[in-house]
Structures are given as C-alpha cells and as structure tokens.
Amino acid sequence: MQKLNWKIIVAESIGIIFLIHGSKRFHISYYSDIWKALIDVDSEKLESLKIKNVGQFLYDSQIFGFWIFLVWVLLILLFKWKIKLPLADTILTLILVFLLFPIGFFNIDFITGLFNSIGALFTNDIGFSFLISGLILTLIGLGLLWVGIKINKNYTQHSI
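Given the sequence above, the corresponding structure tokens read:
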C-alpha cells in the first residue's frame, strides 16, 4: 500500500472547496431574482415569481451544494481512475471535505462574504456578480485539482 501524500490531500481539498463554492454561485446566479427578493424582503415580488414555499427553496439551495459535491467527487474519481493514479489520497480528501458539510462550513459568513467581494468588483447586479465569482472560483478549484494531479503523477513516478 502506498503512503499518503499530504500535499495532494491539501491541494485537492482546497480545490474541491473552491469548486463547491463556485458551483453554488452558479445556482445563486441562475435564481438571482428570487435571491434578490429574499434579500430585499419583497414578499410581493416573491409571489409574482411563483415561489410557493420559501423554506423549501432555501432547503433545495443547500442540498444543491451537497449534490454538486457528489458530482465533482464522481468526476474526480473517474478521471484519476482513467489515468491510473492512486485513489487513496482522493478518497481521504473526499471524506475530509464531506465532514465540512454538517458543521456548516460552506455557509460561514466570513468565507461567503470574502467570495462575494470577488464578483462585486465587477458589477452590482447580483446575478452577474455571482456568475463572475462562480466562474473564477470554479477555475481556481480546477487549477488546484490540476496541481494535485501533477503532484500525484510526480510522486507516483518517483516511488516506482
């Protein structure tokens, strides 16, 4: 059995966190009218948008992050399996990131506020702002996963 490489685990963990935040921002961007009405506490606009249950919408938005996590996990595992890289580091990474869901890590105000400022640099429109920040965060996450794969390839070649 191969020894765990903590550089790979850290790079992949941070990359997956960025991917989840970026993907959730795409979701917020898509439903920007509803989110703007919720932020402005505009019940008339919510009624005109045909929102039957605000609680269910908020619940679905939170569950969306978990489903995105599962999709990215599957894609990463399939990609690493296809290029014949060891999966032990990635499985530990996925367990660590999964443990962040119950503690509400993806909803901490400081972190989301920090990421909100990325899109706000370009525009004040909530939909476009979250689209820009989602794209930037997703690209950063993919870049960090690429770094993890490069480290993994070098580590695997040197250990053989």
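The mean pLDDT is 80. Try to locate this feature in the token string yourself.
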